[in-house]
Design a protein that fits this description.
single chain; Nucleoside Triphosphate Pyrophosphohydrolase; alpha+beta; four-stranded mixed β-sheet; 3 helices; NUDIX_hydrolase-like_dom_sf; NUDIX_hydrolase_dom; 2 domains
Length: 182
């Protein structure tokens, strides 16, 4: 390992996030400070509906306070628990945000979100065989809107910059690679 932790202290905590400051020593002996955001595991779900004529995905549109704007992305989130069953988390987030349930959930991979500053696993699931039901949103998701768009429209939105969520774009790229190799 090229960096050794000398000491670590938590500097902030809330129900969703922990921030710590680590004193580190690099391989060359230089010391420094590293700020790390620790978050519990999350999931991102690609809700894919296939008809004989076309393919559709479901997106959620919501206000993202950190960047001060409303954006569309795949359903995603976590439960503020370190130990979760990944598929249970993905199914729960899908139903909570969209009202959708899935016959089949396929784990495509586990990614790290922004690992230059954050320690958070992101389970990427493909959801198929979708049925619409009632959502069960958290209070902070009160303004969330669900949109069903064709895959062509979705990909155009990625290319024209309408969709800027890196996790959504990464999940879609992963799905496309997975599908091509099946």
């Amino acid at each position: 390992m090229s960096i050794k932790t000398i000491s670590s202290r938590e500097v902030y905590r809330n129900p969703w996030t922990r921030v710590r400051e680590d004193v580190i020593e690099r391989a060359n002996g230089q010391r420094g400070i590293y700020g790390v955001v620790d978050k519990d595991p999350a999931s991102i779900i690609i809700p894919l509906e296939q008809t004989p004529q076309d393919e559709f995905v479901y997106l959620v549109q919501q206000f993202r306070y950190t960047v001060g704007g409303t954006f569309m992305e795949f359903p995603q989130g976590g439960w503020e628990q370190a130990e979760v069953l990944p598929e249970e988390l993905a199914r729960g987030e899908l139903r909570e945000e969209t009202g959708l349930t899935a016959e089949r959930m396929t784990l495509l991979s586990t990614l790290q979100i922004a690992y230059g500053v954050m320690n958070q696993r992101h389970y990427v699931y493909l959801a198929e065989g979708l049925t619409m039901g009632e959502h069960d949103r958290d209070p902070e998701e009160h303004d969330l809107v669900v949109r069903r768009v064709s895959v062509d429209e979705f990909e155009a939105m990625v290319l024209d910059g309408s969709i800027v969520d890196n996790c959504t774009v990464a999940a879609w790229g992963l799905y496309r690679l997975w599908r091509e190799r099946r």
